[in-house]
Design goal:
254 residues, alpha/beta, Cobalt-precorrin-4 Transmethylase, domain 1, Methyltransferase, Cobalt-precorrin-4 Transmethylase, Domain 2, 2 domains, globular
Amino acid sequence: MIHLDLIGIGTGNPDHLTRAAETAMRSADLILLPRKEDKAELIDLRRDICAQVLAGTSVQVVEFDLPVRAVEGAYLDTVEHWHDAIAERWAAEIAAHLPRGGRVALLVWGDPSLYDSTIRITRRLVAVERVTVVPGITSLQLLCAAHAIPFNAVGAPVMVTTGRRLREGGWPEGADSVAVMLDGGCAFTTLDQPDAVIWWGAYLGMAQEAVEAGRLVDVADRIVARRAELRRVHGWIMDVYLLRRGRDLVGEEA
């Protein structure tokens, strides 16, 4: 029997691990750590977390190269093929290192439920008989904490979407607050929203954390320039932002 734990680890800061996450890590027989091209710092953060949490245990930690998603083709098709390849890689590593079964864990950035496909990929693993999800701190929580703002306006909903959807469809209809993830192209620059406010953050919870906030028309160019410079310096970037329009613009002067 293979028992798979999907453990949310926040954004790489060991202080953000829950006690449940630490317990799950120590209970594993095998922890799989993915390596991504040109993102050595990400694997280093996972290594540091394992070194701190697993000290004095016999948990086996195995690294593997994560398959790369194709850049050509329809987006959803390329994602499906990519997920198939990841599942195959996981299955191969589990079979090689836990041939008699046991408990395997994957460390998931943020929380496994929010714009992460780990849960979906596990459904492709026929050898896994049980899946447990350990929730983690999300980048949206850290963003609001960094700016000391509430996630939603009073009595109002928040639309959580991606940069691609924001660029293609504009400001979501009926939403005064929009949280945007997975935006590699600064889609906020395409919006015609003179009264909107943006709260942006990159590397949230990490030593290199960077934040910007203000009226979108005033700070958009500054965010684009700072994001490009941070990516150049670190070789990668993970960022997220919250947009809001209307009367409840708490913290807009930040």
